[in-house]
């Protein structure tokens, strides 16, 4: 960065850069680096959706412009997912060389375990509480689900967020997204929540499975409007 003309700095010296200016410079450097190494026309994970935003099919993230996407590709999350995908493809390649048998499991490629036919016993009970952080003023939701008939030692429930254009239950509405929670032997339940970006930091988003009480707790926090505007700014992008 050029610190020479910053207020309070001497000629030839370097002024103190703000955190936002430092982040902006980092994003711009990542974008330029990505432009030198990535051809978006040949990127299999680059996708422009019907509303004009750009999506990363590998990380399931949405970006307001190609500069934000390019900066994302140089971030830790995208690079980690690329490494995982490469390791998976390498493993499948070795399995094909062995006649289509996975050497780790002894099963055909793509078969990780024996499928079980489970009888679904209905939906779990649940309670939803609106929450707000007193310091950041972030809004969020706390989900409490009860699974009284879950088997002892059953795995913890799993959850994920699905956008409105992926589901086929009702007409898509871009203003909403769906939070799904699945646990055997219960039916998967879905909650319709605002289509706002989630804050994925560990102290903001977490889940907990109480195996004794057979209750599942899940908290999600939405980013503030200021953070969402920052994410949409060209060349700045959000957290990776």
From TrEMBL:
Compartment annotation: Nucleus
Primary location class: nucleus
SUPFAM superfamilies reported for this sequence: beta-beta-alpha zinc fingers (SSF57667)
Domain named Matrin-type: residues: 54-84
UniProt keyword annotation of Nucleus present: yes
Pfam families: SF3A2 (PF16835), zf-met (PF12874)
Entry keywords, A to Z: Metal-binding, mRNA processing, mRNA splicing, Nucleus, Spliceosome, Zinc, Zinc-finger
InterPro entries, per database record: Matrin/U1-C_Znf_C2H2, Matrin/U1-like-C_Znf_C2H2, SF3A2, SF3A2_dom, Znf_C2H2_sf, Znf_C2H2_type
Region feature (Disordered): 1-25, 71-107
Domain of life from the UniProt record: Eukaryota
Protein family membership: Belongs to the SF3A2 family.
PANTHER family: SPLICING FACTOR 3A SUBUNIT 2
Name listed for the protein in its UniProt record: Matrin-type domain-containing protein
Organism: Emericellopsis atlantica
